TrEMBL record:
It comes from Candidatus Yanofskybacteria bacterium RIFCSPLOWO2_01_FULL_49_17. Residues 16-77 form the Methyltransferase putative zinc binding domain. This is Methyltransferase. Transmembrane segments: none annotated. SUPFAM superfamilies: S-adenosyl-L-methionine-dependent methyltransferases (SSF53335). InterPro entries: Methyltransf_Zn-bd_dom_put, Methyltransf_Zn-bd_dom_put_sf, MeTrfase_14, SAM-dependent_MTases_sf. Signal peptide: none annotated. Residues 260-326 form the C-methyltransferase domain.
Length: 326
């Protein structure tokens, strides 16, 4: 299989990040928007913000949804990145459930190495640690320090790369489990990440990734899930297309209620794990609803515009009634 370059540069992106094809169609154009995590302070609130194009494109053959403009990850995920999962009780419960299922389903032995990509404050790894696993996080922001101080999770403060994966194997071992919860769609350097995963994953290991799901974005008119952090919005079809380039395959897929609709996939080396029937069922559902057809996304745009008009009407009405709109 000829492998396209899965790493993309900053700025305009005019080809499918999985296949390299340029035959994409526009799903929706949300105009120019500032990065969603660029929270303003008293010192910066009067300063002009930087805006970037925000347009979602679809390539039918790969099933991938992606932005057509890539913003620098150092801007989107600054050293003082404010988001952390550990302060949300429902999210903590969700992450604990993931760890319990992984340990049970794959019969992990004590001290098995579990690596989390984009590990943030170490919440998911803290649950692996409590179950007797060896844990290691990879996190580029200062949340790496929080993970150690609050959860005792050793964390490499860096973006995940093939070089980092090599270092982990050298110092520890191959990983029985690699997790990537709500980060796998964020990296422009998809190829770098996948090369790192393939370098790090043990021969019978499992890579578990959870991301927002293109099907639920489409069915729920979730235009609020389209923002610069999400360079890609995966369908299951797109993930099934991606992993074989690295000798791997998706063997399980679950549709979740998290974040109003997410997909969790489990992948491993080709032929190492039986394929769950859920994979085929979800692939058929994506086709059935017209997820990869331009006319279906025309209806999506119409629904989004109607929501926009209703919201603007609400704001104008509130202002007329003397309410303060900020």
């Amino acid at each position: 299989m000829i492998k396209p370059n899965h790493d993309v540069g900053l700025g305009p992106l005019n080809h499918c990040q999985i296949t390299g094809s340029k035959n994409l169609f526009e799903a929706i154009d949300l105009g120019l928007q500032p990065p969603c995590s660029a929270l303003l302070t008293d010192a910066t609130i009067r300063h002009p913000e930087t805006y970037y194009p925000l347009r979602l494109m679809i390539y039918p053959e790969s099933g991938l949804g992606q932005l057509d403009y890539v913003v620098d990850g150092k801007i989107l995920f600054p050293i003082d990145y404010p988001y952390r999962p550990g302060i949300s009780a429902p999210l903590r419960d969700h992450l604990k459930l993931i760890t319990d299922e992984i340990i049970s389903n794959f019969k992990l032995a004590p001290k098995s190495l579990c690596v989390d990509i984009g590990s943030n404050d170490g919440t998911i790894l803290s649950f692996f640690k409590k179950r007797g696993m060896t844990t290691l996080g990879v996190e580029p922001t200062n949340m790496a320090k929080t993970a150690w101080k609050e959860n005792g999770i050793k964390t490499i403060q860096s973006f995940f790369t093939e070089a980092i994966a090599k270092d982990i194997v050298k110092e520890y071992s191959k990983a029985k489990v690699i997790t990537a919860t709500n980060v796998f769609a964020h990296m422009a350097t998809l190829g770098e990440v996948m090369r790192g995963v393939s370098r790090l994953l043990d021969k019978d290991g499992v890579f578990v990734a959870e991301s927002q799901y293109l099907l639920d974005v489409f069915l729920g008119n979730q235009f609020d899930e389209i923002y610069h952090d999400h360079v890609r919005i995966y369908s299951l079809k797109s993930l099934v297309k991606l992993f074989p380039y690295y000798g791997m395959e998706v063997f399980d897929a679950q549709r979740l209620n998290t974040r109003e609709g997410s997909i969790r996939v489990s992948a491993g080396w080709k032929g190492k794990h039986p394929i769950n029937p859920n994979v085929g069922k979800l692939l058929k559902l994506e086709v059935k609803v017209g997820l990869f057809k331009p006319q279906a996304w025309a209806k999506f745009r119409k629904n989004v515009n109607e929501s926009r008009e209703k919201f603007l009407h609400f704001l104008h009405d509130a202002k007329k009634r003397g309410k303060t709109v900020v």
